[in-house]
Amino acid sequence: MPTYRVSPEHPDPRIIEEAARLLKDGRLVAFPTETVYGLGAHAMDPDAVAGIFAAKGRPSWNPLIVHVAAAADVHVVAASWPAAAQKLADAFWPGPLTLVVPRRPDVPDAVTAGLPSVAVRVPAHPVAHALLAAAGIPVAAPSANRSTALSPTRASHVARTLGDRVAMILDGGPTTVGIESTVVDLTAGQPRLLRPGGLPLHQIERLVGQLDTPDPMQHADAPRPSPGMMERHYAPRARLRVFGTESDDAVRDELEQERRRGGRPGALLWSDRCGGVRSAAASVVSLPPDAEGYARDLFAALHELDENGCTLIALEAPPDGPGWEGVADRVRRASTP
Ligand code: TXA
Ligand code: MG
Prior knowledge:
binds magnesium ion, binds threonylcarbamoyladenylate, 11 helices, ten-stranded mixed beta sheet
């Protein structure tokens, strides 16, 4: 699996051309976006798309996001483009926002999992943009991790689990947003939030009014409004326990017990209020106390604790409030029930 390091700002056009050629040939290329690394394939080539599902071990009912170089290109996959889509695209593309709109019939069923809609996004990362522009095709790309595992925010995260399954990895350094895009469905009357993510909710609602938020429990059976609402997801190998600072002593005891049992306790903290947990953990990673910084570093921190061999991670509950929805969602899905 060749990994090519490219400048995140000015990637070498020869390397980008080579990656674009592989994509057009139906091969898989992992590349950085501003959110997480994506595992890309030619979106209009059903065999190439099948390769994504095989490499990830992803269930075929979970549809993919199609990436295009510019908003003007959505018509390759979208049958119609609601006014709200244009408004959101004007405001937030390129960026960490995915829009679900009616699909064109020639989009392979494998991409949309047979749904009448398709998810599209214009990523902001210069490497992703250069690749999409050079390839001149729509690129289907889920996060470049095995299904249900942690998303990759570094090329090394991709190499560790998918390295032997891709034709090329473009290493553009750490991603800057750090959690996946916010997904908004525009196929019903009122825009619906399908997945909170890198773009804060209040920024979207300022433009299109309050979003409908489907209750995941109500959709426990298929058809799921967004299969990505699958409960356990984004999870590290270690058990993960979320705690409030008031239970510092109890959690410290749990970590000490884990160590006595031969396990390795870890902690993921953002405040300095958890002295007990900090002292009981064998590995401690600190995250920034602001939503953007926390999101940027969260997955890398979980990857690091996994690499350190942690068997139990105590995670200090992040703050809540506007802008924290994406983080809250990922922490909830990463935690062990
Ligand atoms: O930031 C991101 O969105 C990253 C980067 C690589 O762009 N991609 C990503 O893809 O997170 P993935 O496959 O891990 O998540 C795609 C999400 C899933 O929750 C999926 O169910 C939803 O988008 N989705 C895709 N197509 C859909 C559709 N037609 N209707 C409803 N949900 C859809
Ligand atoms: Mg994913």
